[in-house]
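Journal club side-thread
Mid-discussion, someone asked how the predicted structure for our own chain would compare to the paper's figures. Pasting it here so we can look after the session.
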Amino acid sequence: TLDFFAAYVMWTDHVNGLGGVRIGRSDSQRYFVNITLCDDQGDLDTIERVYRHFVCDGQPDNIDFLLAPFGSQATQHAYDAVNNTAGCYKPLLLASGATADEVLSLPRVFSPLVPSSNFAEAVLLTMHDAAQRQRPARTVSTYAVLSAQGPSETCIAASLRDLLPVSCPGGTDF
């Protein structure tokens, strides 16, 4: 998304203003960051085409890592385009907008984010703490979970099922 791109540009300007990214222990090994934006329009076929172009047709020797598109499903498509094309360079992929466990566990994918499977417990603890701060304190006994059906959401729902007794009169369409 454009918000992610704006953050990347701000980081790039900051790092380059400091002389670039230091690699290794020597202060003399610094590299300037260059970011190229391609609008994938949120289209999975376009994502595959753009990422394949970078690692196969572009200048792969100049690419140390790629910034993944936003979301686990889009990141999976970018990963597949890069890693399932024979004879193409396979750089690291920074997944700063993906949380699905199966995506974050892929080789050469790294992320500053917590995997989706760890979200459920944190959400439940936060709800419990918020209820306890109410005056009078309340006990949370009923939870309702509504979500989309992407890879991250499915993982979170599965984690919730493991942590909570599930009773759904209308069914459990996780």
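Post-session note: Residues 16 and 32 are 6 Å apart (CA to CA).
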